Amino acid sequence: MWCNFQRGFLFFVLALSALHSSGAKAQSEDQDLDQIEAEIKKQAPVPKAKIEKPEVIEKKADSLSDLTKSSSFSDVSILQRRYMPKSGRFQFYGGLAASMNDPWNSAYGVSLATSYNLTEAWGVELKSFFMSSTPSPAATDVNSNLGVSAQSFGSMTGFTGLLLNWTPIYGKITLANHKIIPFDMYFSGGAGQTTLTGISNANPTGASIATGQIFAITRSWGLRWDLTWNFYTISVGSLNNVLLSMGACIYFPEASYR
Description:
The chain is α+β, with helices and mostly antiparallel strands. The chain has two domains: 44 residues; 163 residues, Porin (Beta Barrel). Helix content is 20%, strand content 46%. The protein contains two helices and eight strands. It is elongated, with a radius of gyration of 46 Å.
């Protein structure tokens, strides 16, 4: 009987020891899991708080100008019609000039012009050229080899004309993808008097047409090129000359409007 008691006591001790070991192991595993979860929470990114935009109440646009006040157009740049206004302003122009189509004379000089703009599109201009002519190499060869003076056709020394300017084209161009330059392109028509030397009828009158562009640097001055084509008749027939000039122009008075 004592042996049976010893065996039972030993079995009880072994069972109690096994239960204690199992509980300690489970507790250790629970501590490991808690530590792993804590590390994961430390490394997880904190979600950013959602930023709510303030509610914008759109106002009904009753006119075209009201569109600029709308939040939908807050990032839209409004392009003005013309950078350099011209209505009611004078323009003074000066530049270097050259004859482009005279085979017998090389003519160079200056061009001066004064204009007044009635509106943005229409204006009147008084234009003058003052030229100095010398025989071209072709004229010298003809005179030396054949004894014929090409100067009998006359050499241009000047022109003065009154023209009506029309400016229907305006826009903007970029310079080296860095600077935006506004420009106007005009067309002119009128009449004028050409001054010639070497012939009897030295001051023939005739029609004149022109075109050119003005590149605005500021609202008061800019760079301009001008191509003028004059037609006239002399004793030997109908002639014409093409004059190219490049220079600068200034507007006066200062613009107080857009």
